[in-house]
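Continuing from the previous page...

OK, I double-checked the sequence for Polyketide cyclase/dehydrase/lipid transport protein against my notes and this is the correct one:
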Amino acid sequence: MPTFRRSRTLHAGEDRVFEYLAKVDNLPKYFDQMTSAKPAGGDRVDVVAEVHGEKEEGEAWFRVDRTARRIQWGAPGSDYSGVLDIKADQDRTIVDIELHTAQPHASDDEIDQALDATLDHIRDQVEADNAQKGTVSDT
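Thanks. Re-ran it with the corrected sequence; updated structure tokens here:
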């Protein structure tokens, strides 16, 4: 199963970034295809996504490790899973995303573009929040 990786450095504090990413309700704000995500008890999440024009509903798992600053997700019974690692870098935060998938309908380039878009959305959300609070770093 292929593994895809991407990384971004954000001008926002590690705590702010982690707390934003750890909220299930924020998933549709940064995953383009996801239209809804609702906690369903424990680490279960009910999700709705639009994939290649088709509405897909299902259950996923979403695990937050506050000590390691790591978020993991996946779909039960499938080869799809991912990891977000968040780490401080002075006054910035590095977000690494790793995706494991055997999706036959998506090319490697499409998956790379989707990961880049996800990281761009995360950056836009947390940096905009920082700008509103007047805490964006100039570096």
